[in-house]
Specification:
This protein has helices spanning about 5-15, 45-55, 85-100, 130-135, 150-160, 175-185, 190-195, 210-225; strands at about 20-25, 30-35, 40, 60-65, 65-75, 80-85, 100-105, 120-125, 140-145, 165-170, 195-200. The chain is α/β, with parallel strands linked by helices and about 240 residues long. A six-stranded parallel β-sheet has the order 8-7-6-9-10-11, sandwiched between helices. The relative contact order is 0.10.
Length: about 240
Amino acid sequence: MRGDIFSKLQTARRGKTPVTLVDGLDGKIQALVFADRIEGDIPEPVVKEARERLRDNKSGVAEIGGGRWFFDCHNPPLRLIIIGAVHISQTLVPMAAIAGYEVIVVDPRASFATAERFPNVTLIDDWPDEAMEALKPDNRTAVVTLTHDPKLDDPALEIALKSDAFYITCLGSRRTHAKRVERLKAMGFDEATISRIYAPAGLDIGAVSPAEIALSVLAELTAVLHAKPIVAAAA
């Protein structure tokens, strides 16, 4: 790899900036393709392929314009933003971390969001709307709201539904979700947008305890990430 390309690639990775390394397999061309710029000179169809692969996080080889190209995608870790430092969160956090997620817990209630209850995890004590605006959920972000408090969950959902977050879910029964839907409609969201929310949260595995509910949520999140069919949870 060329020295200048390697240096820029390392800088992007340290800054958690998504980038695709593009290598012409004839050994003549190397480039970096970012979401908003290109470092190098490659044909537009190759740039398009690089960005699509970066979005889908799919490295590999493709034939384009009579040439063979290798695409090496470098994305930051998947993120899980949890609204609510509650009992379910205490189990979900380490599970998601083991699965490779960067986990952030948002809760303005100081007695809930403590380092003792959530060691080695990023805790944000801002109000959820402020935290979500700063975190900027993208297509590699999952958002889980667990507080049961509309004053905390709804502002987070408002930001999440306007983002490209790949998974959005909320704790609560079908009756609770029906009330949530009405509140979101009052905010101006249409049914198609609201339908992005997976609710009730988690796969229907008969989960009862906080640990089981956390497991069901992580299982559903994983299925959505890999575009597998979902069985809705029971009320």
